[in-house]
Specification:
This is GTP cyclohydrolase 1 type 2 homolog. A divalent metal cation binds at residues 71-72, 110, 245, 249. The protein is an alpha/beta fold and 300 residues long. 32% of the residues lie in helices and 23% in strands. It contains 10 helices and 13 strands. It has helices at residues 10-20, 54-62, 87-97, 107-111, 116-123, 161-171, 203-208, 221-233, 245-250, 252-266; strands at 33-36, 45-49, 67-70, 101-104, 129-131, 136-140, 143-147, 151-160, 180-182, 188-198, 213-217, 239-243, 272-275.
C-alpha cells in the first residue's frame, strides 16, 4: 500500500532545508535564513533563484510559489526602513501580500556537501573533490564531512585551459561578461579549484592545494595581477578563470531544488520545485575595446 505524501508547512520545509544546508555553516558576516513567512503556512510550490529582485519575485508569484529560496540574502546589508518606495521594501510587501515566504541560503549553501561549489565541480565532470579550507564539518546520512568555502578536485584526464574554459561556458547561463581567462590557452590542466561568487580571498589556499586553475568571480585587478606575476616566477600556475558571480552560483539551483524535494519526500511530504528562468546578472551588454594581444605567457 502506497502512503500518500502530505503537504508540508513552512516549518517542515525549513527543518528539511536546515538538514541539507545547516545555518551554522554560514560565515559570521552572513545573513542567511528566513526573511518573511508564517511557519504554519502550507508550502506546495518552492521556487529557487540566485537573487531576490523584482523580476524573480514577480516570476515566483506568477508561478504560485509559496516559498522563494534565493542564494543571496535580501537583507545582507540590512535596512532601517522598508517602505514600498525602496526596492527591498517593495519586494517584502509584494511577498507578504502574495503569501510567498522568502529564505536566503548564502554561505551555508556554498559550504555544504551538496552546495554551490560541489555543484560547480560536478558540472565540470569532477565527482570527487575536497574543501579548500575544511574549517567546518557537516554530518549527513550518518557520515561526517569536512566542508567549507571553495573546493578542489581533479579532472579524469588533463585538458587544455581553453578546453576547460569552453566546458565551463557550456554549463553556465549566458551573461554579457562571459569568461575572462589568464593563462596559456594551450597549456594542459587537471587540478581544478573553484569558489562560486567572489573568491580572491582564497588565493593562498588555491596555491597551497597546487591547483592548476582557479575558477571564481569578481576578480579585482591588483590581487589577480599579483597572483599571476608570482605564478610566472614559480612556473605559471595557477591560471585564473573569472566568470559572472550570478552564473557561478546559478549552477547549484537545480541541485538545491532536487535535494530539498527528495529530503521532504523521505519525511512523507510532497512539494513541487522549480528553478526560475530570470537571469539576474546585472549586466545587459558588452562593447569590445578591441582584440587583446595578450602577453608571452598567454599567447597560443
Amino acid at each position: 500500500m502506497t502512503t500518500e505524501l502530505k503537504t508540508p508547512t513552512l516549518a517542515d520545509v525549513m527543518d528539511a532545508f536546515e538538514h541539507l544546508y545547516p545555518a551554522n555553516l554560514q560565515e559570521d558576516w552572513d545573513a542567511s535564513g528566513l526573511v518573511v513567512g508564517r511557519l504554519s503556512a502550507p508550502v506546495r510550490t518552492v521556487s529557487f533563484a540566485v537573487d531576490a529582485i523584482q523580476a524573480t519575485v514577480h516570476e515566483a508569484i506568477v508561478l504560485s510559489s509559496d516559498l522563494l529560496i534565493t542564494h543571496h540574502p535580501l537583507l545582507l546589508r540590512g535596512a532601517k526602513f522598508l517602505p514600498d518606495t525602496d526596492y527591498k521594501g517593495n519586494i517584502i510587501h509584494t511577498l507578504i501580500e502574495n503569501k510567498c515566504a522568502l529564505l536566503g541560503a548564502h554561505t551555508n549553501a556554498d559550504s555544504a556537501v551538496d552546495g554551490v561549489n560541489s555543484a560547480l565541480m560536478l558540472a565540470l565532470g569532477i565527482t570527487e573533490s575536497t574543501s579548500l579550507d575544511g574549517d567546518k564539518t557537516q554530518t549527513i546520512d550518518g557520515a561526517t564531512h569536512s566542508v567549507g568555502i571553495g573546493r578542489v578536485g581533479e579532472l579524469s584526464e588533463p585538458i587544455t585551459l581553453k578546453e576547460l574554459a569552453e566546458k565551463l561556458a557550456s554549463v553556465l547561463p549566458a551573461t554579457a561578461g562571459g569568461l575572462r581567462v589568464a593563462g596559456n590557452p594551450a597549456d594542459r590542466v587537471q587540478t581544478i579549484a573553484v569558489c562560486g561568487g567572489s573568491g580572491d580571498s582564497l588565493f593562498s589556499l588555491v596555491k597551497k592545494a597546487n591547483a592548476d586553475v582557479f575558477i571564481t568571480a569578481d576578480l579585482r585587478h591588483h590581487p589577480a595581477s599579483e597572483l599571476r606575476e608570482q605564478a610566472l616566477i614559480e612556473g605559471g600556475k595557477p591560471y585564473l578563470i573569472d566568470c559572472s558571480h550570478f552564473a557561478s552560483e546559478w549552477v547549484w539551483l537545480n541541485t538545491g531544488a532536487q535535494k530539498l524535494k527528495e529530503e521532504l519526500a523521505a519525511r512523507g511530504f510532497a512539494i513541487e520545485t522549480q528553478v526560475l528562468t530570470t537571469n539576474s546578472d546585472p549586466w545587459d551588454f558588452r562593447v569590445s575595446t578591441g582584440e587583446c594581444a595578450g602577453s608571452a605567457s598567454t599567447a597560443s
